[in-house]
Amino acid sequence: MSEPSIFFSDPNERQGSFLRRTLVLGGLTAFGVTALTFRLGQLQLVQAGEYATLATQNQFNFRLIPPPRGLIKDRNGVVIAGNRPSFRVLVVRDETKDLDQTLDLLGQLLPDTVERRRSIIRDVNAAPRFSPVPVKSDLTWEEFAKVNLYANELPGVMADMHEQRYYPFGGAFAHVVGYVAKPNASDREVFAERGEDPPALFFNPSYRVGRQGIEKALDEALRGEPGGNRVEVDARGRVVAEDVGGSRPPVPGAEVITTLDADIQNRALEVFGEESGGCVVMDIRNGDILCMASAPAFDPNLFVTGVSSDVYRAWADYERRPLLDKTIYGTFPPGSTFKMTTALALLDAGIDPSDRVVCTGGYRYGGRTFRCWKPGGHGAQDMHDAIKNSCDTYFYHMCNRAGVDRIARVAEDLGFGQAYEIGIGGQSDGTVPSTRWKREYVEAVGRGDPTWYPGETLSVAIGQGALAVNALQLAVMTSRLANGRKKVQPRLIKAVGGEERPLEAFPDLPFPDEQLDIVRAGMAAVANDVTGTAYRASQLGLGDILMAGKTGTAQSRDYRPGESRGPRNAVWSRRDHALFVAFAPHDAPRYAIALIIQHAPAGGSADAAPRAREVMKVALLKDPDMRARIERPLPPAPEAPVDSIDEGAAPPAPEVAPPAATPRASPASEATPTGPRPYLSEPPR
Question: Bias category Low complexity: which stretches (predicted)?
Answer without folding.
Answer: 662-674
